[in-house]
Amino acid sequence: MSTFFLFLYALLITQRLLELRVAKRNSNWMESRGGTEVGQGHYKYIVLIHVGFLASLFGEVALAPTAGLPVWWALPFGLFLAAQVLRYWCIQSLGRFWNTRIYTIPNEPLVKKGPYRWLKHPNYLIVMTEMISFPLIFGAYTTALVWSGINLLFLKFVRIPIEEQALQIRAENQD
Length: 175
Known about the structure:
This protein has one domain: Up-down Bundle (Four Helix Bundle (Hemerythrin (Met), subunit A)), CATH 1.20.120. The chain is mainly alpha-helical. It starts with a helix and ends with a helix. A two-stranded antiparallel sheet has the order 1-2. The model has no long low-confidence stretch (mean pLDDT 94). Helix 2 (43-62) packs antiparallel against helix 5 and helix 4 (122-137) runs antiparallel to helix 5 (141-174). It has helices spanning 3-32, 43-62, 74-94, 122-137, 141-174; strands spanning 36-38, 102-104. It comes from Ammoniphilus oxalaticus. One of its GO terms (molecular function) is protein C-terminal S-isoprenylcysteine carboxyl O-methyltransferase activity. It is a multi-pass membrane protein. InterPro entries: ICMT_MeTrfase, Metal_cation-efflux_comp.
């Protein structure tokens, strides 16, 4: 297993743990302003998907019969780096409203700046890009396919509908 993989893998895990701290701080802030979490029951599955993805990635790279990066590794690496820039654009654009959970806060306008001017859920597109591109850097094709597929299905049939319902209820309560 390459030092490059271990470095990027550790960096990715550190990034996610720091984001969870930011999310917790933002949760506290939103709750102090009357915010409520919506759809708490599905969150454990998001955690399982991300932990499964990371475990699968580590296992696939560790058990790979051939060492070394694919010849075209720079392409998914560049895509992954671009996704990081976009991820932090989302986080910066939402500010204290950014979270890994779904919150609604009465009488707060929806954020319509940054990538949210064009897309309702840009962060989900970014996460999908990461789940495909990061494993491909190291030739972990099974992880890229299986876990991005699981994540896509979960987003489409669980997470986004819960978020859309919360936005709808919020909009109705503001009328």
